[in-house]
Specification:
CATH topology of the largest domain: Maltoporin, Chain A
Family: Belongs to the TonB-dependent receptor family.
Distance between the termini: 77 Å
Main location: membrane
Oligomer: single chain
Radius of gyration: 33 Å
Shape: elongated
Structural class: mainly beta
Protein name: Carboxypeptidase-like regulatory domain-containing protein
InterPro entries: Beta-barrel_TonB_sf (IPR036942), CarboxyPept-like_regulatory (IPR008969), Plug_dom (IPR012910), Plug_dom_sf (IPR037066), TonB-dep_rcpt-like (IPR039426)
Low-confidence stretches: 1-19, 105-120, 232-241
CATH architecture of the largest domain: Beta Barrel
Subcellular location: Cell outer membrane
Largest sheet: 22 strands, antiparallel, barrel
CATH superfamily of the largest domain: TonB-dependent receptor, beta-barrel domain
């Protein structure tokens, strides 16, 4: 009987509350806080509110309602807060995050009471506070919504440095005990899907303390982490902080370079160099110590796409190739794709260097700089709006002219060599779903080794990106960029032949990208891009009124390169991952231009021209197009052991023309046209990847085979200077390269670093139906950068918390060269007869570098943290040849060998950071 009376009483109270909830009221408030609004509702209705004051947000509310129910008013009032409500009789109970349910069922008297809502509703969220570790802070995320049908919710946030507010990338965010986790991206943000209820979330990375937080998930929400630096980890050397990415990803041939990983590497002339560090990794090499470009898996220098915040850098080098043009103090990291290249990239055959500027400090002014024997570098991070926007400004310059002027060598006493570069990067987080980033870059080099010629070249780049998260599964970005590269040769002599020769290439690009997680099994990437090339292939102008040089201007080259791509990363199972992509690219050659037509069956020469066509400005001259296939697969034998394979086909519509054996600042770029076809390549790759000891050690073995078509090379004695019809000097060729790459890396510990070995072969075949156009009888022969053996060792040893020792050792097979094999006399002078092209090799290259590094004391409250590096480049004093050449002088044949550093080069550099 008592139970019946109690149930009747509860039903009576509930029905009374329901009736009152449905009564319409009129109420209006303006700029009131939540407490004041509750008081106003109480006065209007008689309802009493029960809540904790600490729960109420500090914000103002304004609204007007006419004949609206209490339910409707409270739903609108609390919709942008984490507060819920429950009406019982004339009481309104405010809850934080959680809901109060009407129906109860006692499942087990010995455990927590569990409630089950009405049919069709979701179950409430339970957790047992008695099991919580009191040292771990608990955060409630979102608010419970009984109408939601989602089983999983999105937790996102940002991981920052506690001291300076810097965003931290590559931080592992792990859900303890649930086999879930992710990594922060370059701006420190992360996102992870979690079920409702209690979870332990841990953020950890090398160089920072581990931080664990407990979250109780009610709905979507955010949680930020601020990590304290662990100064005991400052001298760790890590190339890839995503310690198991090499096992999990589908792509082969991917390398990451982090700024901290090269902090203690021995330096040449005191300049920290990210791109030079890349050449110590397998499959990445340079043709010589002073070469400007990179040779990736047997590819040419012009087959590499160098991107800075999605804008192209055509010449990423300073000072004869000794320094890179990328400032390490503004760089967040580099991803290098040399095996499987994702479908979103196009336009190059061999590799992509994706360089990203780091995110600036949005909390306080910060900076980093260095002072070396020939260069100075300073980068500042300036908060514009706290937690929202930041500006990075950097400048770097050399003061090296004094070295050249102080040399005893008279031929160099009037020489000069200088460079500078500047970068500005602005980032702004508009809201939780969108942000914008703008980067501007400019560099300038000048050098003169002879008294009559001054060489100069400049890079200029602008890039702007707007990114937006359209919904929980779809992200988009739009980028616009402009890149410009130019060089000048200023010749001034005692005679009347002074001139200025110049070249310029400019491209403007627009691209749109989408990333779509349609399910746990499928991740789609798709987008499109278009790019306009404008090339000024050369002009010659007289210098001074007395110059006898006649001005000459070559017609501009113009072309539009467009592409559309789609790729799907498909998790077929926990062990098998596939990534399949398709890219369609098109290139349109534009006027104005003059196109020669040559007689069939004759070599292209001035004498075989039978007609000439003239095209107007922006008129389509020729169109090329094709499909590019990108396929990669990974199979995991275990969590730390996987097999990967892939196939790539690519097209490239731009070429580099040079008379030099090695790439130089005065190389010119040539677009594909009626006579010069686009370069094409296919690459097959296969690799085994294994980690040991909780990812402390990594080992990989990769093999590749690459076929290339439509390479451009030149006939013997080719004349390229201001040649309007360059096809008369070219020979189309085919390339073939193959090799194997081995990498052993230790990521942490007092002794860390990596060992890499590459065996690679690169051949080219220049055949023609005309005997005069064949090279080496039309057979395959080694390319200029064919170096079969390449070994690198980068080792770092931490002596104490502040002092460390580092060493690099490099060995490479000497590159091919053409030597004289005979001589003859003509007009009382000796001349040489040369061997087949690239039949011989220059001596092998090897070099040992050492450095001793000293950190300043690790007190947190300091004006600046200092770092000294004392290094010796080329300790053994090896006279490594850069090139070998032969000249006829005074009727005699003389051989010459040029070297960049033939003696040990000591350096002391001071670095500071605040």
């Amino acid at each position: 009987m008592r139970k019946f009376i109690l149930c009747f009483f509860l039903i009576f109270l509930f029905s009374k509350g329901v009736a009152q909830k449905q009564t319409g009221i009129e109420i209006s408030y303006h700029n009131k806080d939540l407490k004041e609004v509750f008081q106003l509702i109480s006065q209007k209705t008689g309802f009493k509110f029960y809540y904790l004051k600490d729960w109420l947000p500090e914000k103002a509310f304004s609204a007007t309602y006419s004949n609206q129910t209490i339910d409707h008013i409270l739903q609108q009032l609390l919709k942008d807060t984490v507060l819920n409500y429950y009406i019982l009789d004339e009481k309104i109970i405010i809850t934080q995050n959680s809901l109060v349910f009407d129906e109860f069922f006692l499942k087990d008297t010995t455990s927590v009471t569990q409630s089950f809502p009405s049919e069709g509703d979701k179950k409430p969220i339970f957790y047992n506070e008695n099991t919580f570790d009191e040292e771990i802070i608990t955060y409630k995320i979102g608010k419970e919504d009984n109408s939601s049908r989602k089983d999983f919710f999105e937790l996102s946030g940002k991981v920052m440095n506690r001291e300076n507010g810097f965003p931290l990338n590559n931080v592992a965010v792990i859900v303890e005990g649930e086999d879930k986790g992710t990594y922060t991206n370059i701006d420190g943000t992360y996102s992870i899907s979690l079920g409702a209820g209690s979870h332990l979330i841990t953020a950890k990375s090398l160089g920072n303390d581990v931080l664990t937080k407990r979250v109780i998930i009610y709905n979507d929400g955010s949680l930020n982490f601020q990590l304290k630096e662990n100064f005991m980890e400052l001298s760790e050397v890590v190339v890839d902080m995503k310690s198991d990415r090499n096992i999990k990803d589908a792509f082969t041939g991917v390398s990451q370079i982090d700024v901290q990983s090269i902090k203690t590497m021995p330096l040449v002339l005191g300049e920290r160099d990210l791109l030079k560090a890349a050449t110590t990794l397998p499959g990445i090499s340079k043709a010589g110590e002073g070469a400007l470009g990179f040779n990736i898996r047997g590819g040419r220098e012009d087959q590499n796409l160098i991107l800075l915040d999605q804008g192209i850098i055509y010449n990423p080098n300073h000072f004869f190739g000794i320094f890179s043009a990328i400032n390490p103090f503004t760089t967040g990291g580099i991803e290098i794709y040399k095996g499987n290249i994702p479908a979103r990239y196009g336009g190059r055959l061999s590799s992509v260097f994706d360089i990203r500027t780091k995110k600036g400090n949005t909390q306080e002014l910060a900076g980093e700089g260095s002072i070396g024997p020939v260069t100075g570098n300073l980068a500042l991070e300036i908060p514009i709006k706290k937690d929202k926007s930041s500006l990075i400004l950097s400048g770097r310059a050399t003061y090296s002219d004094w070295i050249l002027k102080s040399l005893d060598e008279k031929s160099l006493s009037n020489s000069e060599a200088s460079f500078y570069d500047v970068l500005a990067n602005y980032t702004h987080q508009i809201d939780e779903k969108s942000d914008v980033s703008v980067t501007g870059y400019y560099s300038s080099d000048k050098f003169s080794i002879t008294s009559d010629s001054l060489y100069s070249y400049q890079n200029r780049m602008f890039s702007g990106t707007y990114s937006r998260k359209l919904n929980e599964d779809l992200e988009s970005s739009i980028n616009v960029s402009n890149s410009d590269y130019a060089f000048d040769i200023r010749y001034e002599s005692q005679f009347s032949d002074n001139f200025l020769n110049s070249f310029r290439i400019n491209d403007t690009k627009l691209r749109l990208d989408f990333e779509h997680d349609i399910s746990s099994a499928h991740n789609l990437n798709y987008g499109m891009s278009t790019k306009l090339y404008v090339i000024e292939p050369g002009k010659l102008e007289p210098l001074g009124q007395e110059s006898s040089i006649e001005a000459k201007y070559l017609n501009k080259e113009k072309g539009i390169e467009s592409g559309i791509y789609f790729s799907d990363e498909y998790n077929m199972s926990e062990d098998l991952l596939l990534n399949a992509g398709l890219r369609f690219s098109m290139f349109n050659v534009l006027g104005p231009d003059l196109v020669n037509h040559y007689a069939t069956g004759e070599p292209k020469t001035d004498n075989s021209v039978i007609a000439t066509s003239s095209f107007d400005n922006n008129e389509f001259i020729k169109t090329y197009s094709g499909l590019e296939y990108r396929f990669a697969a990974r199979y995991k034998f275990a969590d730390d052991f996987s097999l990967k394979g892939g196939y790539n086909s690519m097209m490239q519509y731009i070429h580099t023309l040079s008379n030099n054996t090695l790439v130089s600042p005065t190389d010119i770029y040539k677009l594909s046209d009626t006579h010069i076809k686009p370069q094409k390549a296919q690459q097959f790759s296969l690799g085994l990847f294994k980690n040991f000891n909780d990812n402390q050690y990594e080992i990989s073995l990769e093999g590749y085979f690459k076929l290339t078509d439509n390479l451009i090379d030149f006939k013997t004695g080719a004349a390229l200077f201001l040649n309007e019809f360059i096809e008369t000097e070219t020979i189309p060729g085919n390339g073939q390269s193959y090799g194997g790459e081995f990498l052993l890396k230790k990521n942490s510990g007092d002794l860390n670093g990596w060992l890499s070995y590459t065996y690679s072969r690169s051949f080219i075949k220049l055949d023609s139906e005309f005997q005069s156009r064949r090279v080496n009888m039309g057979e395959f022969f080694p390319s200029n950068f064919d170096k079969p053996h390449d070994f690198s060792a980068v080792l770092n040893y931490k002596i104490t918390k502040r002092f460390s020792f580092s060493a690099n050792f490099l060995y490479q097979t000497g590159r091919p060269v053409t030597y004289p094999i005979g001589k003859y006399e003509y007009n009382n002078s000796e001349y040489v007869v040369y061997s087949d092209r690239n039949k011989f090799r220059i001596p092998d290259y090897y070099r040992l570098d050492l450095s001793f590094n000293a950190e300043g004391n690790h007190k947190i409250e300091k004006l600046a943290h200092s770092f000294w590096s004392i290094s010796i480049y080329n300790v053994l004093g090896r006279n490594n040849p850069f090139s070998v050449y032969f000249v006829t002088k005074d009727g005699q044949i003389e051989a010459y060998q040029s070297s960049i550093f033939a003696v040990p080069v000591p350096t002391i550099t001071y670095n500071f950071k605040f």
